[in-house]
Input
Amino acid sequence: MRWPLARLLLGVTAGTFARFMVRGIRRRVPRALSITLSGFVLWAAENLATHMGAQRSRASSTAGNPSPWIG
Output
C-alpha cells in the first residue's frame, strides 16, 4: 500500500514547489520532497521521544499501572 501511495503523491505534486526564504534569499524545493522530509523529521522525533521514555506517565512508572485512566 505504501508504494502506490508514494506514486500517487509524486503524480499529484509533479511540477509543484514549496517556496520559502532563508536570509532574504528565495528558495524552492519540490513539494513531494518537502512532504517526505517533513514526515522523516516527525518520524525521527517520535522515535527519539519514545527512546527517551516520553510515553511513560508518572503514575504508570511508580504504581505499575499501564495507564492512569484504568482503575
